[in-house]
Amino acid sequence: MAAVPPIDISRLMRPRSIAIVGISPEPSSAGFLALRNLEEFDYRGAIHLVSRNQSNIGDRACLRAIDDLPDGVDAAMLFLPRVAIEDAVAACARRGLGGAVVFAAGFGEAGGEWQAAQERIAATARAAGLALCGPNCLGIVDFAHGIPLTFTRQIGRRDRVSSGAVVIAQSGGLASIVRAALTAKDVAVACTVSTGNEAVLGLEDYAAYLLEDPSTKVVVAFAEQIRQPQRFLAMAAPARELGKPVVLLLSGHSAAARESARSHTGALAGDYAVIEALLRHACVMLVRSLEELIDVTELAVRFPSPPSKGLAMVTDSGAIKGLTLDTCEALGLELPPLSPDLAATIQAELPDFVAASNPLDLTAQAITHPEMYARTIKPLLADDSFGSLLLTVIIGEASDFALAKGKACLAPLVGSSKPAILGLLGDEVDVPASIISDARAAGIPFFRSPERALRALARLTAYGRALQRAHTRQAMAPMSLPPLTGEGTLTEYASKAYIAELGIPIPSGRLVGNLLDATDAAVTIGFPVALKLQAAALPHKSDAGAVMLDIRDDTQLAHAWAKLQQVGSSHPDLAIDGILVEAMAPRGLEMIVGARRDRDWGPVTLVGLGGIWTEALHDVRLLPVGLDLDEITDELGKLRAAPLLRGMRGEPARDVTALAMVVQRIGALLAARPEIQEVDLNPVAVYAVGEGVLALDALIVTNTPNGRTTS
């Protein structure tokens, strides 16, 4: 998808004058409701009404057409049927307006002639520098500056917000839901944007603008598609520097990839997996549900300094302790053990039969000794081993006892410099309302579900760690890249020759065209050897019987040679470059290292368990290019096969540093060579620590002259 130049949206977002086009005196009409919103928000700018058949609405005069508007009008809300929108946008462009909101639906989503109409409208707007919101949207509501560009009624519309979250969604209904949910949690929302079809302006344009506003604390977004991925990634960089989290819910994670690739790497790297990998390392919190979007946003707003260390958890239920252990393991949320000194401090506050641990179960003793909460929680919050604390307790129905217990639980959390969260078990059971209001007034999130709390904390902690890594990332030293010869799919021999120039080890080998030369090569290299038929149209040689392994003498060599000739004869249209004679490599742990260029999101690398296990187990990690060796090593530790890298059952620990270096160099290759579409090294044999790696097979796919890859 080709990038389009950005448009200045400041006049749309902060209009000093607004035109309502298509207004009616009918109180239930969209234009009339938009005017009422402006009045109720006490909008101080000029308001111009445009109506073909009304001379005035109340005490406000109406103009007959957009062309009658005075000079300098900043933004217009177009309450017109879709058949009139194209002419109206053209008129806004002629009058030099800065922005327009198109509410009408039935354009791009209807396809056919209306898709074409949307494209013409977009072209007109871009040519004039007109920042167009929509079509098919619910507009923009700025609660911080008192500017409602919408006809929908707004809860708390008279309450001016100084700062908070901004909600940007391709669905206007979902934007309203998220704002309502956050408001119910006493989390302020500074602005909502319904982007609709995004004919001109996309989610990333609004986010980039709002990030610069001091009233923005967190960007909350919902998208069905990121239409300008590179601009979205570029927006994430200043968000990191400004310390303003971006929380994104992206639908479609179960959809099939938009294109298939011939290598194993392409087959595994589906679109959502690529997006998830790139956004994770760009410090965007990608969530999987609406509830998670709301929960993570609340934590991000309340805790502007996200934790990067593990969780301390306190409860009064052994069952909840066990469930917490299960949930945290599934989420990758660390529960650090207590240090000996801390364990002794906490143990002194517990009965002999209660062991100090993390999670900490206070048991039913806390019912009669509520002071145990403060005496155990305060040392945990003071300890540097923990980045956050979750207190999850059984509170019971609303009663004086429940109120007293709730206050005892809440007191040690108030004023914490770390994220501290209160969870009251019981689902819909009534609890003292003052406990909830007191918690939120003190900036302490309140949850009825410990799993939701843990899931949100896991996202926030992962974000905190990603920020740390991004700020300490060591740039890779520039590589000297040789020129790339050939196009389309390169043979294994050509691919290996190229990666060897990058410093990636490969077995000794020689390309030959006859048995005599093959024998000479085998003697020079040293038996045992492998023979591999080389043809660009045969990327998976083993499946075609085009690989002969463990050849130990001249007789076996001649027999293997004859078999490969038969394979070649059975494929008369196959262009054979020759046969690769290659040294048999020592046995190592087989891994895959690959990379692909997503047409929208750019290059991404892949590493995981290789050989025949690649497609069988799908144990891989997708990574953006540009990570340092420590980050890549950390990702290797997240593989299910990580114990094999560390060494087990008599097998040695593997040279993870050498493997990480291969991943880093392949990523740098794709970043530097835009003509390369895919790289697949499978398997890469990883040997014991200090003994390095060997790329046993390699495939490079490049663009052909017409811009496509060959099959």
Account of the protein in words:
Residues 255-270 and 706-711 have low confidence and may be disordered. This protein starts with 9 loop residues before the first helix and ends in a 9-residue tail after the last strand. Helix 22 (629-636) crosses helix 24. The strands form five sheets. A seven-stranded mixed sheet has the order 3-4-2-1-5-6-7, sandwiched between helices. A seven-stranded mixed sheet has the order 9-8-11-10-12-13-14, with helices on both faces. Strands 24, 25, 26, 27, 28 and 29 form a six-stranded antiparallel sheet that branches. The protein has 711 residues and is of the alpha/beta class. The radius of gyration is 31 Å and the shape is flat. The chain has 24 helices and 29 strands. Helices cover 37% and strands 21% of the residues.
Instruction: Report the count of strand segments.
Output: 29
By DSSP (H or I, 4+ residues per run), the number of helices equals: 24
Q: What best-fitting shape do the alpha-carbon axes yield? A: flat
What topology, given as strand order, has the largest sheet? Answer: 3-4-2-1-5-6-7
Query: What share of residues is helical?
Result: 25-40%
Secondary-structure class: alpha/beta
> CA-to-CA gap between the ends?
22 Å
Radius of gyration: 31 Å
Mean pLDDT: 91
Which segments are poorly predicted (pLDDT under 50) over 5 or more consecutive residues? 255-270, 706-711
Percent strand equals 15-25%
- Biggest sheet descriptor: 7 strands, mixed
